[in-house]
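MODEL INPUT / OUTPUT PAIR
PAIR INDEX: 1
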Amino acid sequence: MPDDINPAEVAYIEFLADGKVAGKTGCNRLISSYTQDDDKLKFGIGAGTMMMCPPDFMQIESGMQKAIADTAAFTINDDALQLKNKEGAKLAVFNRATE
């Protein structure tokens, strides 16, 4: 990954109050639903744009899509959301956006 690409600037998720999640996966936008019960988290089948982007952005996108598909649980530590699979392995980390 080139040093001038900051994944936090090109990939993010936002949890909305109505049980929906929206974001950007590196190249494309996404929208989906989610359910949460204690530390369990599951994303629904989502929709998104399907643009082709430079390989570095597509690499970020591929990783984020896999993380979302495999998410079964989460933790929040120091304003960082960690998505985890059913075995508890860390899939992705998202830092809270600063305003």
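PAIR INDEX: 2
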Amino acid sequence: MRGIAEGDVVDAIFRRGRICHGPKLAIDQSRFPTAEDEYTPGQRRIIDARLDESGEDFKRAILWARSNSVR
């Protein structure tokens, strides 16, 4: 369920005569370390290749589902 709970950080914007609330990023993610220096270049290439392959598999599954649902 969506909504605002105690402790949530929100951003309020006045738009078209209404006050709109939305989530506000409370954590500066640029300060967190990345895993870039934890892998050798060879390991990174393997990981990237597997991610590319999984992305292609995902796209094929979506296209297959769309083509089978259209009658």
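PAIR 2 NOTE: Strands lie at 10-15, 18-23.
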